C-alpha cells in the first residue's frame, strides 16, 4: 500500500510540476492579460475568461498554481494579477513594496470529502475534523464518528488524511477554521497557506487532492466544493456554531457571507454564527497593485485590466451559481466597485465613469 501511495504521489507531483512549468508567463500584448494563483476558483475563472474573450477580444491567460504562487508572481511583477483565497497579510503587502488592492470575485466552500466503502453521507463535528487532522482519530469506526452518524456502518479501517502540499488559499481557509474551533490545533499547527502537518499525505492543487482521495481507499481530505462534485465525491455535513449539521451549498455559503465587509474586503467568514450557514466558507480575490505605472506597463494594458475587474464583479457574477460558487453579496460588490475605482495610472484613476 505504501509503495502504491508513493507512486500516486509521484504522478500527482509530476503532473503539477508540468502545469507550473507551463505557467511561466511570457511577454504579452495589451490584448492579453496574465494571471496566476488559486485553484479554488479556477473553474469559475475559466468560464469568466473564456466568455470575456468571446465578448471583448481580450485574452486572459490564468494559470492555477495555488494562492501562494499567485501572490509570489504578483510581487515579482510577472503577472497582471494574482488569485488568492487567503487575503494577503500586512507582511506580504509590505514585501510587495506598494499598496495592493483586493477585489473579491465570488465565494466558495471548503468541503470534507472521503473515500470509504459505499461513501455514505456522513455528518462530522469540528472537534472530530481537528482530531483527524491532528492524527488523534485514526480509524473510521471511531466512537466519535459513529456517534454523529447513528445507523451508519463504518469499517475498522485506517483514515489516511490528504492535505495540500503547496502554498494554498484553500489550506488558509481550512486552517483558519480549525484555529477557531480547536485550541490544540491553533497551538500546535496554526493558520496559513503552508503548514507543518502532523500527519497525512500531501498533494498539489485542489485537483491533486481530489484525485488522490479518489485513488486511496480510507482517505479523507479537504477541497473546494466543485472539485468534489465534479468527481462524484461525497461531502460531509459539518456541524456549525449553532449546532446545525449543514450541507455545503451556494445557499449555505451565502448565509455565511452575511457579514460586515471592511473597506479593503480582507475578511474571514469561517465558523459563521449564521444558524444555517456553512462554517468552512471563504471569499476569493484577484489582487493587483493599486498604482499600475510600473515595469513599463502601458496605459492601454492597464485599462484592459481594470475593465476586466469591473466586468468580473458585475456581468461575470451570473456564471457563479451554475458552477457551485456563491455570487458576491451586494455589500461586497459595492466595496469592490470602490476598490476598482481606486486603481491609478501615474496617480490618476484609470476607470472613468
At a glance:
The protein has helices at residues 2-22, 42-56, 67-75, 90-96, 126-133, 143-147, 169-181, 183-188, 205-215, 225-230, 250-256, 299-312, 330-341, and strands at 32-37, 59-64, 81-84, 100-114, 123-124, 160-164, 201-203, 219-224, 237-239, 245-246, 281-289, 344-345, 348-349.
SSE map:
Layout: H1 2-22, E1 32-37, H2 42-56, E2 59-64, H3 67-75, E3 81-84, H4 90-96, E4 100-114, E5 123-124, H5 126-133, H6 143-147, E6 160-164, H7 169-181, H8 183-188, E7 201-203, H9 205-215, E8 219-224, H10 225-230, E9 237-239, E10 245-246, H11 250-256, E11 281-289, H12 299-312, H13 330-341, E12 344-345, E13 348-349
Parallel strand pairs: 1-2, 1-3, 5-9, 6-7, 6-8
Antiparallel strand pairs: 3-11, 4-8, 4-11, 9-10, 12-13
Amino acid at each position: 500500500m505504501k509503495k502504491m501511495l508513493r507512486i500516486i504521489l509521484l504522478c500527482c507531483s509530476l503532473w503539477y510540476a508540468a502545469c507550473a512549468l507551463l505557467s511561466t508567463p511570457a511577454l504579452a500584448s495589451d490584448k492579453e492579460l496574465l494571471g496566476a494563483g488559486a485553484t479554488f476558483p479556477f473553474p469559475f475563472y475559466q468560464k469568466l475568461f473564456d466568455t470575456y474573450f468571446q465578448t471583448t477580444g481580450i485574452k486572459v491567460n490564468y494559470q492555477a498554481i495555488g494562492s501562494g504562487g499567485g501572490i509570489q508572481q504578483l510581487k515579482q511583477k510577472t503577472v497582471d494579477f494574482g488569485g488568492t483565497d487567503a487575503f494577503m497579510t500586512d507582511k506580504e503587502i509590505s514585501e510587495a513594496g506598494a499598496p495592493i488592492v483586493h477585489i473579491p470575485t465570488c465565494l466558495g466552500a471548503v468541503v470534507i470529502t472521503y473515500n470509504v466503502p459505499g461513501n455514505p453521507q456522513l455528518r462530522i463535528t469540528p472537534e472530530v475534523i481537528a482530531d483527524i487532522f491532528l492524527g488523534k482519530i485514526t480509524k473510521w469506526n471511531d466512537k466519535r464518528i459513529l456517534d454523529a452518524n447513528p445507523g451508519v456502518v463504518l469499517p475498522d479501517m485506517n483514515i489516511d488524511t490528504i492535505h495540500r502540499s503547496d502554498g494554498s488559499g484553500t489550506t488558509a481557509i481550512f486552517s483558519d477554521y480549525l484555529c477557531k474551533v480547536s485550541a490544540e490545533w491553533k497551538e500546535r499547527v496554526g493558520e496559513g497557506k503552508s503548514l507543518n502537518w502532523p500527519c497525512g499525505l500531501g498533494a498539489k492543487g485542489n485537483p491533486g487532492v481530489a484525485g488522490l482521495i479518489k485513488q486511496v481507499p480510507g482517505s479523507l481530505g479537504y477541497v473546494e466544493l466543485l472539485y468534489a462534485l465534479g468527481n462524484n465525491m461525497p461531502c460531509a455535513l459539518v456541524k456549525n456554531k449553532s449546532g446545525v449539521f449543514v450541507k455545503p451549498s451556494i445557499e449555505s455559503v451565502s448565509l455565511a457571507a452575511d457579514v460586515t465587509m471592511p473597506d479593503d474586503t480582507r475578511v474571514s467568514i469561517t465558523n459563521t454564527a449564521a444558524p444555517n450557514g456553512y462554517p468552512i466558507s471563504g471569499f476569493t480575490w484577484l489582487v493587483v497593485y493599486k498604482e499600475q505605472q510600473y515595469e513599463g506597463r502601458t496605459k492601454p494594458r492597464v485599462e484592459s485590466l481594470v475593465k476586466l475587474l469591473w466586468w468580473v464583479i458585475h456581468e461575470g457574477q451570473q456564471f457563479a451559481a451554475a458552477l457551485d460558487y456563491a455570487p458576491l453579496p451586494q455589500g461586497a460588490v459595492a466595496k469592490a466597485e470602490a476598490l476598482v475605482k481606486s486603481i491609478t495610472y501615474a496617480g490618476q484613476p484609470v476607470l472613468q465613469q
